[in-house]
Amino acid sequence: MSKKFPILFPDLLAHFELIKGSSDDPDETDYEWNEGNLNFKVKEYSPDDYIPSEYNVLNYKNKFYRCAFDGHVIDGYLSEQLFDEYEDTYFDEEDTCAGEWIKIYKNSSREDIPEGSYLFEIPSIEEILDGGKKEKNEYISEDHEIVTEWVDEIDEEDFKNILYGVYGFGREVLFDDGFVIQNRYNG
């Protein structure tokens, strides 16, 4: 069962300390798994006044990430072949978690999208920063702007692993040559 996102960062840490592995329970909303030497922990949080739907928070390499909900997007293109192969698995808006988050534009007029490819947009990601026990603790700078420098500084593999954990897109899609991210924070 999903919870409300905590106001205080120590409470967020406490939520994630309770996650120990995952089960076959279809109602399970908290998951932990390892792939190679990487550890992923995901917790689902409930909608609130600001956020319209349930969403995941990812703990990856001791940092926390979630959808930015700020109108900015990650955009790029994926090959028609990749789309066709994984349409039912990841891109079906009605039946998959990942499909709820990605918009596919099959008839884009953008000149930077190669022929035989579709434009995609995914909501941007934000890193949740530790504000200690202050109530304003999440991801806002002193100038009340979302901190985005990490988006350009993080390497491509880690960025795609974050997308994998936050949105549920399979690594077989994200790391395929037919899936190209052009902008990590656009809009």
Task: Set out the fold topology.
Blueprint lengths: L8 H9 L12 E6 L2 E8 L9 E6 L2 E5 L5 E7 H12 L5 H5 L1 E3 L11 E7 L1 E4 L20 H5 L2 H12 L3 H4 L4 E8 L1
Antiparallel strand pairs: 1-2, 2-3, 3-4, 4-8, 5-7, 5-9, 6-7
Labels describing this entry:
187 residues; alpha+beta; five-stranded antiparallel beta sheet; four-stranded antiparallel beta sheet; 6 helices
How would you sum up this structure, described in words?
- This protein has 187 residues and is an alpha+beta fold.
- The chain has six helices and nine strands, in the order αβββββααβββαααβ.
- The longest helix has 12 residues, at 80-91.
- Mean pLDDT is 84; it is low at 136-145.
Strand order of the largest sheet: 1-2-3-4-8
Give the end-to-end Cα distance, rounded to a whole number of Å: 33 Å
Overall shape: globular
Order of helices and strands: HEEEEEHHEEEHHHE
- What percentage of residues falls in helices of 4 or more residues? 25-40%
* Beta-strand residue fraction: 25-35%
Determine the mean pLDDT.
84
The tally of beta strands, per DSSP, is 9
Low-confidence stretches: 136-145
Most strands sheet: 5 strands, antiparallel
Put the structure in a nutshell.
Helices cover 25% and strands 29% of the residues. The protein is of the alpha+beta class and 187 residues long. It is globular and about 50 Å long.
